[in-house]
Amino acid sequence: MNDNLHQLRCIGCGARITGAEAQPDFRCVLCGELFEVEYPGWGERQGHDRPNPGALKWLWRERRCSPEPLDRSGVWRFRELLPILSSFGNVVTLREGNTPLYALHRAAKSLGMDQLFAKHQGMNPTGSFKDTGMTSALSVAKERGFEWVACASTGNTSAAMAAYAARAGLRSLVLIPEGKTAWGKLAQAMDYGAVTCQLKTDFDGCLRLLMQIVKESPIYLLNSVNPYRLEGQKTPAFEIAEAFNWTVPDHLIVPGGNLGNSSALGKGFRELYELGLVARMPRISVIQAEGANPLVRSFNESHGASLEPVEAHTRATAIRIGNPASWRKAVRVIQDTDGWCLDVSEAEIAIAKAELGAEGLGCEPASAVTLAGLKKLRAQGMVASGETVVLVLTGHTLKDADYTINFHRGTLLEKDEIAGHEAEIARLQRNAQPVEATTAAVLAALKGRAG
Ligand code: F0G
Asked: How far is CA 144 from CA 20, 36, 91, 219, in A?
């Protein structure tokens, strides 16, 4: 580990330790809180370790044309801002990152906005944003000589971990809640050779158990409590700033589950700002599902001072989390950037997902909370028509095909959930229909489908 360049700082009591001193569960021994990676040289204005903004912007762009695997990774292209390894020779990469930023023309039009974009993290190698954090943390595991890595997961973390572990020649252990993950994700963990345990508990129960397991055996924990995960997951902030020519959008909207991603993106933008690479930070808002909304409740009940775990229920299984580990980090990001935290219903998620699909993008249900949340923010006058907004789409549409098919078949939502949304849903549904194998029958199927 390159402990000369980075250290870990407890977000609770401020204690500082070296990377090598971290406990297996990545909790502070003094106060029990989480750590974040800190780069001491950057704070000193004249410090010789402080990167030069102009040179970095040029270098990062040049690397996009390089044939080197490290340069072709959208995470390690920015390696000056994540010096967490002793040797970049230990990097395990699948060419993650460099994901597309798409303009959302139809959604922008219907919301009366000029500048609406989707940063599609589902276009990563295993189909979710988790790859950007897995390349960084798993590279640390490899450098430290671990043979086993593990995570508790609602599906995407396990898919990413299993793939990167397989590339590195490490063994991986996955704990997932039985019957509460999408099949596509489970299939990936199997395909990449993980030992996959389906437990009769929820995600929060899986994570609790894993915290004990890593204390008892030499297994490296790869959940987002591991601060090195967030170092990779902060890099989409760099890509977004670069795509806007080092200005930043007015507003970034992120789904909230265990709350590692919103924390990481906030850290990314903060570092760009502190290093003088951008002039301000975007407002960062977190959207949760109504049935899995502990952070929303925390803001409503205590302005983010405390969080009561909830028993989580949502069909957006990726964010079916009642006791989010990184909630304090996310509170800080939302408060520092004047963001909002709100929740959306099951019908609002399903409609937003179908709308993103109808724009030719598609995403998994958890990602669609961002558009559903933006609609609410627009309706409440909290986002102006001229503001530039980026939605972070976290997972690929093929991750949870059952959800999509059930929506279009009309079997996804209960009657009481649909109430008030009937017309919108009917307009979006495109169920596959059995048609006779004749020209006339196929042409007849087109009638009335002009919109
Ligand atoms: N979107 C998707 C597609 C996810 O898979 C997750 C989390 C989130 C959003 C929420 O991100 O937890 O950083 O707030 N999935 C984790 C997993 C929990 O195990 O795959 P978060």
From this structure: 9, 18, 12, 11
Distance 257 CA to ligand 1 centre (A): 5
Neighbouring residues of 21: CB distance < 8 A, sequence distance ≥ 6: 8
Atom 12 of ligand 1, residue of closest alpha carbon: 258
Q: Which helix (H) or strand (E) holds 392?
A: strand 388-393
Give dist(CA 113, CA 429) in Å, integer. 25
Q: By alpha-carbon position, which residue is closest to atom 19 of ligand 1?
A: 153
Distance of CA 22 to the CA centre of its chain: 24
CB-CB contact of 141 with 2 (8 Å):
no
* pLDDT one-digit tens code per residue, 30-52: 999 999 999 987 766 555 656 78
Q: Which of 43, 25, 26, 44 is nearest to 35 (CA)?
A: 26
β-bridge partners, 389: 116, 251
Are the C-beta atoms of 281 and 337 separated by less than 8 Å?
A: yes
CA 225, 227, 228, 232 dihedral sign is: positive
Tell me the one-letter amino acid at 235.
Answer: T
Neighbours of 411 (CB within 10 A): 9
Q: Which residues contact 364 (CB under 8 A, 6 or more apart)?
A: 122, 128, 182, 316, 318, 353, 394, 395, 396, 397, 399, 400, 403
**Ligand 1 environment, Cβ below 6 A:** 128, 130, 153-157, 224, 255-262, 318-319, 364, 366-367, 394-395
DSSP assigned state of 245 = T
Containing H/E element for 225? Answer: none
Segment 185-209, tens digit of pLDDT: 999 999 999 999 999 999 999 999 9
